[in-house]
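Service request form, structural biology core

Requester: graduate student, group of Dr. S.
Request type: structure prediction, single chain
Budget code: on file
Notes: please return the result as structure tokens.

Sequence provided:
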Amino acid sequence: MDTPKRSDKLFELINSMSMSEKRYFKLFAGRHSGNEKSNYLKMFEILEKMEDFNPDLLVKNLEKQELSTRYLSSDKSYLYNLVLRSLSAFHWSKTAGLQIKELLHQVEILYERGMADHCLKILKKARSLAENHQLYGMLPEIERYEYRSAAVTGELELINHSLHNAEKTANILTNLRVYSSLHNQIYEYKRSYAKARSQQICDEVGNVLRHPLLGEATEPPSFWASLYYWEIHAAYNYIIDDREKELMANQKALELLEAQPNYEQDYPAEYANVRARILILQSDLGDAAFEEKLIEFQQLPDRPYQPHHQINANIYVNAYLAQMWRLVEKKRFSEAFDLIPVMETMYETFETDIPIHIQISYQYLFSYVYLANGIFDRSLKHANKLINEFSEKERPDLHGYIRLLSLILHLELGNDRILPYQLESCRRYLKSRDCLFEMENLLLKMIRKLSAKPYEKESILNRYLAKAEEVFSDKFEKGSLYFLDVLGYIKARQNKQLLATYYSSTTADLPAY
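Core staff response, request fulfilled:
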């Protein structure tokens, strides 16, 4: 098993910076760190050159340059804050939110100097930015200074106008908080269960959608509430496995984003994520049409603004992820296998820039595709990495499937000594999460039988194939095939074939999702 990499907040921050941000920091540090400039720059440059964080190497390199390491923790904390200050200065005009914060900072300085009339002019600009970009969360602070400044200058009409605006803002924020709460509820279900596996889960999720603010005729009063509205509907339809409606909801969200001034520039990662989900949902397109959509998605980094390298990484890894999910969904496991080398290289290149939930998807797909192609040892390596190095709180929906996949791998590798313990551990885990559904029970029982009586393999597979076909006639159980094709696996092993070989034959039928 690979040793987990040690991390460090300062190293992560420096590693996230673009070349232009690093150049700016070196100039910024020269202006703000006085005589200690060279010391902090040297530490910055040492960390900048590290591929992985190594505290011993950091100390060794500092001592080599005759720099004290006595107060290393304090020095790192100072450097961390200095880097943040330089990033703030570098990006202050890049987004409307940062511009408003800078304007409010100016207002605070002017107000303390008794220059209330100066404040009102700047506040007018701040309000215009906040309203145009619908950054309602920033309006209360603007309105607080508007009221205080107007009170100093004695402008009664402006005081009344400010109070009216404050009441309007409060109503919008109250509405937004409700949408935010509903959004959190639906995403908790999505994170925990992915696809609904029982009528009870469907009913619970449906209760969220019955909220009056989520009705078809509802028109949310703000951009952010509207975005939550469509994201909630997208998540709901993902859970109940209505791909057509999920695609429609994501397309509605995309329309909102593209109509909002500068959203794509201010929130490029969020914008790319919506586009990526739409791409994955278009997997039913023919190869040529899907390739066209894929190229369009990959061209996102070439937009007029120059996105951060992390955004480029997000786009590239999501593009390959969409391709891989499509091939797995279509049971084209041999083609998926051919895609792995470039994906593994990309994963290693961008690992620190890839969001955790995407890293988990990559590792799961690597393990699944290696299993389908009979590379069991490589498959188990990725399965173990997922189980041991990633918290089950991240993508709990996939953690259950990877544990089941791991059991299949131990069976295939003949690890009979540890298999009984792994079976019991997996059963306890699934039961603790209320995820011990019919498919899980069937697979656990079948693996236990195959492990205990390998000489009866043929009859056991025949018996469990009949049970599996009955289980997967249930619409809720059928949804699990999207993540782990247990039915296909049983049929393949019954025919003494690998999953990839079985589905490449002309007689194999794809399961209907």
